[in-house]
Amino acid sequence: MEKILQQLCANAVHELYGVEVAAEQVIVNETPKDFTGDYTVVIFPFVKAARKSPEQVGNDIGQFLQTRLEEVASFNVVKGFVNFELSDAFWLKTFVEMAGNDQFGQANPTGKKIVLEYIGPNTNKPLHLGHIRNMLVGHSVAAILSANGHEVHKVNIYNDKGINISKSMAAWKLEGKGETPQSSGKKGDHFVGYYYVLYNKIATEQAAPFIAMGMKDREAEKQTAIYALTEQFNRDWEAGSPEVLELWRIMNGWVYQGFKETYRMLGIEYEKAYYESECYQLGKDLVIGGLDKGVFLKQPDGSIWVDLSDEQLDQKVLIRSDGTSVYITQDIGVADLRYRDFKPDQLIYVVGDEQIYHFKVLKLTLEKLGMPYAPLIYHLSYGMVDLPEGKMKSREGKVVDADDLIAEMLQTAEDHTKELGKTEGMNAEEASQLYKILGLGALKYFMLKVNAQKRLLFNPQESIDFQGHTGPFVQYTYARIRSIMRKFEGDYQLPNFPLTALHPLEKNIIVEINKLPHTISVAAETYDPSVVANYAFSLAKTFNKLYAELSILNNENPATNTFRVALAAMTARNIEKALHLLGIDVPERM
RNA sequence: GAUCCCGUAGCUCAGUUGGAUAGAGCAACUGCCUUCUAAGCAGUAGGCCAUUGGUUCGAAUCCAAUCGGGAUCACCA
After folding, report:
1. Structure confidence by residue, pLDDT tens digits, A385-437
2. In the complex, which nucleotide's C1' lies nearest to the CA atom of residue A390?
């Protein structure tokens, strides 16, 4: 509709004033609440060419459109704006079309293939709040891109080798005494994470004398015995020592087992996992190939570097002087492998904004290597999650643990539900299912409603709300509608409704429902789930207003009942779709 | 020091490619459940859109400078 208005306005300006205007240049907005109308055209841009007052130009254009477009019921001019009010017949027709389209909100296939990497945990400690944001954003963006017609493949990357897991291994070797997750009753990832924290404790103790001598923290850590063991493990691993590999496999296995439970709880899945341990060699080969081609340089100590000083960045190490790989080495290998696996049109990396620099380097390095997929790389960066006292620090154990937080949310949902006395008539299984839907809904909505690029403040003291601009608010609207649909006896899926006039509140809902496809395309273009979250809220709010002011089932005219149930059903469908894009489930009752 | 991000109500955030009187939620205060679920609805109050200057019919939005906050610039990942 916006496009039609744009085109007609351009025609109007051309015919009335003899000035060519591109249709895209015409500004069409939704009419703000306090004015009458549905769409508003800004006419200031034409005033000069017309040599008339803004009011006159507005009237001219308004007249022109009203005679050409039957959907225009009326128009009014305020200062430099023409507000067009569209006919109820138009909105009814729009509604019937939307209601009849099962695929409403699903765009046609674009043929674009996207590989989206997310989660990307290290295997030395459990998942935390930052990972939750990563998982939710990645999962949601993938769903949104699919809805926008792209073919999306979700993949995960495990940073399963290197110095960090070696630290957990070293601490376990020294202090573990053969303990296992089973024997200790701990979840696998928490178990291994415990030894990572223990490593830091031991290292800090052992480093103290060196710090007293005036060494910097990092230097002092390198002097410690436990660090020596860690490095030994790391070198032996790369040398292929069977005992070290065995220990490494066992400890990683524990971690994967633990991660799996968390993924399942959050409804997160991926199609394929990549492992640093399986890609670093390929990365090293590619780097050495680059050295042979002369695009990288080798220092006398044997380390290999890429020089990005022409691109305003520094020189970066690609292979250490001892021949071992660094973080970026594996990413080069992973990118290459992934490209060969999928032949994608785009490679998206959902990774925190602290790594913006890293991805710039990665992209430029691959460009220097002449890789065809270098331009396909897109770093979808999201902001860190802050606690009131600042950044989370996992090495100090100052983190909000993912599993703890999820458990807490479910408990809060249960408390709320019981307090409101809403468990009546539910069996235990239904009830616990509901707590899960609501608790996770609250958590996911909380994390996705703010723009992913922004930093997010999380205060564990203030529990996540269940009222207002929240997931449960939207879910509640859905549950209410479902309740009405259960009570209504009749067919509301009529192709036509014998109505001629719309109540303003009814029209508001049709207008909101109509926005879903546009919302999805904006969200897809900006990789931003918060657009969808805000849409769901706005739709629910619009419906709640009608619900409070008008009756849906108890009208004198049965046609009104039928139509309003149809409106409600369509609202519920859109809510369900929007929440689905956020990875949030909807309850039949709550 | 260099590069990048961010400053909107007491708090957490929206605010389309520059458009009309800057919007929600939380917290505070008022009302509304003998009709479809009150996890709701209606209302009151709360703003020098960090500051200054510029661009123009028009700026929270674009540009510049300043102030404040953050991230990154590891032979960590």
Report:
1. 888 777 777 666 678 899 999 999 999 999 999 999 998 888 999 999 999 99
2. B70
Burial-class residue A206 by CB neighbours within 10 Å (0-12, 13-18, 19+).
middle
Fill in the amino acid letter for A38: D
Q: Say if CB A529 and CB A452 are below 8 A apart.
A: yes
Number of neighbours of residue A143 by Cβ within 10 angstroms: 22
Residue A196 has pLDDT above 80, yes or no: yes
Query: Alpha helices, DSSP H only, in A178-224?
Result: 181-184, 188-212, 217-222
Judge whether residue A260 contacts strand B, using its CB and a 7 Å cut-off. Answer: no
Distance A476 CA to B40 C1' (A): 9
Helix then strand then coil, % of chain A, to nearest 5: 60, 15, 30
Would you say the C-beta of A269 is within 7 Å of strand B? Answer: no
**Cα(first)–Cα(last) distance of chain A, in Å?**
38
Question: Does the CB of A353 sit below 7 A from strand B?
Answer: yes
The total of other beta-carbon atoms located within 10 Å of residue A290's CB is 22
Q: Considering only CA atoms, which of A367, A376, A365 is closest in space to residue A343?
A: A376
Give the best-scoring range by mean pLDDT among A160-169, A395-404, A435-444.
A435-444
Which of the nucleotides in strand B have any atom less than 7 Å away from a protein CB atom? 2-6, 12-17, 19-21, 24-27, 35-42, 57-58, 70-77
Among A472, A361, A461, which residue's Cα sits nearest to residue A414? A472
Output the distance from A478 CA to B10 C1' rounded to whole Å. Answer: 33
Q: Which residue has the higher pLDDT, A112 or A389?
A: A112
CA distance A191 to A124: 9
